[in-house]
Design goal:
6-stranded mixed sheet; Rossmann fold; 2 domains; Alpha-Beta Plaits; alpha/beta; elongated; disordered C terminus; 12 helices
């Protein structure tokens, strides 16, 4: 999937402002951002459920907005609220979805069986969806998104409201799906991105502020916490800040420093050498690199009430823009 210059306007507000990126088979992409960043608006445009104000989405050479039926056949979409009929059985729901996606009648049973096997629902076909647990309903939602064997799977908050066991199961399922699909998931839970994703795209105020492999993204804000035998002082802090590659040094307590740097081996070697002369006891990476990156890239900006609630605006009709699909 190739996304080029995608925009969505709501009146005078640009919820999504000219974003571009690509999705490829074999990767799980974490889609992050604070409330009002434009994530759900973007996901709905990628799924063909919301017309853009400008830009293109191309899947396997097919423009989503010029040939929507052909393009949508290559997209599986799970919105935050799974589109399930609670009075149907799992088999009835999935069979209905194969018909919507125009899967040939002769292939529908096989497609349903494959989707159930991939999502751990092989023994649940006759169960009524309304009687299933939240975790199993999420599985049915994912199954309906992949029942037609799409190239791209879009998951909007797929783990919302799940217990720890259900979270683990959905994590394993998402990683497994990446072997055959490009997977993009929107979430507010940073630990999920760290455990499932190969790459992170972060939005803020309608713009993409970072698009990078997860390891590179967290290295951008690489930090180590060190404990010293002797109490750190301002002279040591200033000396450490003079080392090329060191961005900041923070004295946390009487024996602890947080050192933020560029992640290079040369910077780390020079820093450790300087600390050793001051009684280095412990040196280790900080564990919340993604959280610090999120805070760094999205802090200090005020979001007005008119910029909040993109989910609600996505569902409202926009009289100023006629749908292209």
């Amino acid at each position: 999937m190739e996304v080029e210059g995608l925009e969505r306007h709501f009146g005078h507000t640009k919820a999504v402002n000219g974003i571009s990126f690509s999705l490829t088979k074999g990767e799980v992409v974490g889609f992050l951002g604070p409330n009002g960043a434009g994530k759900s608006t973007t996901m709905q445009m990628l799924a063909g459920a919301l017309a853009p104000s400008a830009g293109r989405v191309v899947i396997d050479g097919i423009d989503l907005f010029d040939e929507p039926l052909r393009a949508r056949a290559k997209i599986g979409y799970l919105p935050e609220q799974p589109p399930l009929y609670r009075d149907l059985s799992v088999d009835e729901q999935l069979t209905f979805c194969t018909a919507l996606h125009k899967v040939p009648r002769a292939d529908r049973a096989r497609s349903c069986a494959h989707a159930k096997a991939r999502t751990g629902l092989a023994d649940s076909g006759q169960r009524i969806i309304g009687n299933l647990s939240k975790g199993f309903q999420q599985r049915v939602g994912i199954a309906q998104a992949l029942v037609h064997a799409p190239d791209v799977i879009l998951l909007d908050e797929p783990t919302s409201g799940l217990d720890p066991n259900q979270l683990r199961e959905i994590h394993e399922l998402v990683v497994d799906l990446s072997a055959d699909h490009a997977v993009m998931l929107s979430t507010h839970i940073l630990s999920e991105v760290q455990s499932m994703c190969d790459r992170v795209i972060m939005m803020h105020l309608g713009h993409i502020v970072i698009d990078a492999p997860l390891q590179d993204a967290t290295a951008r804000e690489c930090a180590h916490v060190t404990r010293l035998r002797d109490a750190p002082d301002e002279a040591l802090r200033k000396a450490l800040e003079q080392i090329p590659g060191v961005r900041s040094v923070e004295i946390i307590d009487a024996h602890t420093l947080r050192i933020q740097h560029d992640g290079s081996g040369e910077t780390q070697d020079a820093t450790v050498a300087r600390l050793a002369a001051h009684g280095l006891r412990e040196w280790g990476p900080e564990r919340d690199g993604l959280e610090r990156l999120f805070s760094t890239l999205t802090q200090g900006h005020t979001i007005s009430p008119s910029q909040l609630g993109d989910k609600a605006r996505d569902n409202a009709s926009d009289k100023s823009s006629e749908p292209r699909c």
